[in-house]
Amino acid sequence: MNKNLPPASAQLASQMTKDRVEILLAKMTLAEKIGQMAQAHGSEDGVSDDQRRALELGQLGSVLNIVSIDVICELQRIALEDSRLGIPLLIGRDVIHGYKTIFPIPLGQAASWNPELIEQGARVAALEAATVGVNWTFAPMIDITRDPRWGRIAESLGEDPYLCGELGAAMVRGFQGKDLSAIGSIAACAKHFAGYGAAEGGVDYNTAIIAENELRNVYLPPFKAALDSGVASFMTAFNDLNGVPASGNEFLLKQILREEWCYQGMVVSDWESIVQLTEHGFTANDKEAAFEAANAGIDMEMVSNTYSQHLESLIIEGRISLAQVDEMVKNILRLKFRLGLFENPYPQPDKLPALVNHDHRQAAKKLALESVVLLKNSHQSLPLRLSALSSIALIGPLADDAYEQLGTWIFDGDADDSETVLQAINAFAGDSLTVNVDRALETTRSNTFIDIDRTMAAAQSSDAIVLCLGEESILSGEAHSRADISLPGAQEQLIHLLAKTAKPMILIVMAGRPLTLEPIIDHVDAILYAWHPGTMAGTALTDLLFGEVSPSGKLPITFPRMVGQVPIYYGKKNTGKPPSAESVVHMNDIAPRAAQTSLGMSAFHLDAGFTPLFPFGFGLSYTSFTYENLHLSSSTMNIDGVITVTVDVINCGEREGQEVVQLYTRDLAANVTRPVKELKQFQKVHLSAGERQQVKFLLKASALAFYDRKMNRIIEPGVFHLWTGGSSTADLNASFEIIGDKAVTVAP
Ligand code: NOJ
Per the database record, which ranges form the Fibronectin type III-like domain (predicted)? Predict the structure, then answer.
């Protein structure tokens, strides 16, 4: 149902769609029905003979990866005019963080903790993609991941179920708009259902083993949030989940998605993930793969054609019923009606804003500004003061690379639209600043310097060094995982050499994942972690460098000290032997031939301890914030109750800034062990210098529900701790209790 229409109109609209779907379905042959369930890979060169034939026969439901408006118009024309029933096509595309105007990678967007800006970003992406006729994007990717080795972490919204759910829902609202049938709205797709982000070893496509309770409490909530925000489609995942590949997983697709969550939208497979069921060792051949996928409930097959080849015989054999196929086809047709494709099948670029226009660039800049996280700022090295500097050395392979700053998944972005850091600093400072530029390394992976003497000379002759290092786009994204997540190539060596100049050194990191920064952290004065910021990287970073704007990003993912700590995340379980500063010992401090003992031992690594380098939720500003007067309206609440939590946030610095006020809870004793902290709410507030603001949260008991041992979602009486502050290590705390005789089961 369209959530943005008043209930009566929404009901009427959905009844009308239902009637139209039924009427159309009744006219369809089996071949036409099975044809609707196929999605083909398109070509920019034009319509292939096979596709033309399939379209004329009404036997193709969708194409993906075409952005030529002429080809799209021709495909739609054939579908509408030359086929018997004239059913328009879904035109799919990976519009992941912008179409032409590129926004920060999703992990960077998540660091903004700003749902409004993220919604606007997705809106811009939809408006631009719609100009050529794309009507369906394969985003948002809301796979929880706690492994920075995994290349697709760049496309994720981080480690936390609540943050990921809130931001994923914002993306859905942005792509789909208030009315999915309006010009400029495109269907979103919640992917990849489910468990893809838990790939073993951070290796893409790898097996995921996730206990059901963990699956329900951690990995599935963002998908439920997307569903609640009205997402039009779901995509299945490539991975094997607990022995059953997600693209043939009845438990996920039937029991959870359709039965427990009552999802009525459409489900598409991932690219050839149905034929891959055989590769997994789950099915013996394509026919069995088609059976398992259809039986589990995948409505549309992406690229491979097991459905078109085998569904008919599976129906004749009685293994798949016609009723099942009808339901799947209805899901597809319903989406086409919801999108208004029967009324407006062709792109209407004249009714849409120009690509990469000023407003779109400003929206991308805003999000880039808020996505950057200030990780370190010793002696207030930042912001740089133009009046106090006559020259800077701008060093590194990412200082002036219009393409690499865009990040992964930018099929349609154009490097020519980018502003680099070098261009932006020159535009900002003009003649008042000498910029000594030196690339130092050909790429971030280079192991040899271009001319280290020249690099050192540039540094020596400047008042300060701004280093632009990190990872090029190609080092993250699909199938681009890394086992070593340190700064690649000779970049660490470069930092160590430059540190010898004793000049103030500012490090800008552009990367698709958290990198292990411990080897260099003490050698630089400040770190701006910029992810891949997109088209407007240069001007956003220049504004931050020179203090036009204060950084306000907060980490959506924990930064490990060393890769061996992975998985490391804030919402861990306590264990029976939780570590503390007192219980930790470093291996170098253990005496030779020390006797074995387990006394006083706890859960940590002998070489890395137990803390991350930077915790989830962390991020500095050029001003500073303190928290006072944490107050709960009551220290008890009923099982259906709510309490009001207030806290004063004070900007105690000398300049304005934004702070993300975070609220965490812990359920102290529960039917299943609960994380040591869970993010429950957040608010981003803007405070001028010296300003104090009371921030108010309404905390409902229902927000404390979780899945228990029997996989019931319950609210349980008991004592909770609560924290508020500017990161997951916030220590301003209080306690409250949910009162009741027994736990109550609540709907998902
Ligand atoms: C495979 C990826 O896993 C998926 O996320 C993407 O949408 C499809 N390819 C289509 O390109």
Answer: 659-728
Sign of the CA dihedral running 253, 258, 263, 265? positive
Is 414 labeled as catalytic in the residue annotation? Answer: no
Domain 358-546 of CATH type 3.40.50.1700: yes
* Cβ of 292 below 6 Å from ligand 1: no
What is the fold of 625-745?
Immunoglobulin-like (2.60.40)
* Delimiting residues of CATH 2.60.40.10 domain(s) in the chain: 625-745
Regarding the beta carbon of 525 and ligand 1, being less than 6 Å apart is answered no
379-412, pLDDT tens digit by residue? 999 999 999 999 999 999 999 999 999 999 999 9
Q: What is the DSSP letter of 102?
A: P
pTM: 0.98
Tokens in use for 599? Answer: 């006394």
Going from the Cα of 191 to the center of ligand 1, the distance in angstroms, rounded, reads 9
- Cα(237) to centroid(ligand 1), Å: 9
User: 3-class SS at 741?
Assistant: coil
Predicted confidence band of residue 1 (pLDDT cuts 50, 70, 90): very low
Task: Compute the distance from residue 147 Cα to the ligand 1 centre, in Å.
Answer: 20
- Report residue 2's pLDDT band, with 50, 70 and 90 as the boundaries: very low
Tokens for 274? Answer: 């149905």
With contact defined as beta carbons under 8 Å apart, do 616 and 557 qualify?
yes
Bridge pairing between strands 233-236 and 526-529: unpaired
β-bridge mates for residue 647, sequence order? 695
Which residue spans of the chain are classified as CATH 3.40.50.1700? 358-546
Does 300 score more than 60 pLDDT? Answer: yes
Task: Indicate which residue's Cα is closest to atom 11 of ligand 1.
Answer: 94
**Catalytic residue selected from 204, 240, 270, 401:** 270
Mutate to test the pocket of ligand 1, among 66, 271, 272 (most ligand atoms within 8 A of CB): 271
Cβ(138) to ligand 1 under 6 A?
yes
User: What stretches of 471-550 adopt beta strand conformation (E)?
Assistant: 505-510, 526-529
What is the mean predicted confidence (pLDDT) over 320-339?
Answer: 98
- Is the Cβ atom of 271 under 6 angstroms away from ligand 1? yes
pLDDT tens, residue by residue, 475-499: 999 999 999 999 999 999 999 999 9
Per-residue model confidence as pLDDT tens digits over 348-388: 999 999 999 999 999 999 999 999 999 999 999 999 999 99
Peptide bond into 6 cis (omega under 30): no
- Cβ of 625 closer than 6 Å to ligand 1, yes or no, is no
Ligand 1 centroid to residue 270 C-alpha, Å: 6
